[in-house]
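Here is one chain, start to finish.
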Amino acid sequence: MNTPALINYVPVALKKTPVIYKILVMVMMITLVGGSLTYIMTYTNVGITDHFYMDWFTSFLSAVLIMAPIGLAMTAFMNVFVTKLLPTASELKRNLVISVFMALNMELLMAFVTATNNIGFANTRLFYTAWVEGLLAALPIGLILMLVMSVTVKPKIERFLKS
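Its structure:
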């Protein structure tokens, strides 16, 4: 009385995540990180003034337009470089190394763009001071954001973007 049961197995195709959702997630991350860091840098450069929000917004847009393509290229390069440099290290350790390096480089670039936007090059000493002060003010927050993101958010986002 053992009659094999016939089961009609129909494989279910996984739905691909729409590209617009992937773009929106990346825009939200860039806005959160870039917006908060350029806000701190702009505040450090010029303080709260009548045109602070316009200064911050233009610094943010400039930083994003410059930082996004460089950041994408640098991230790809760093993933390959750190994987070759630390082949036996766990993925978590490699992500931490990449995050610290990326935070330093991206914040150097954002501080440069913000100081350029807010101070300009007329007085190089003032420009250099604004660049360094903006970097030092935002660096702790940037490092914390990057480390938290590399440990918790990056693996989930990578899976989401591959879906």
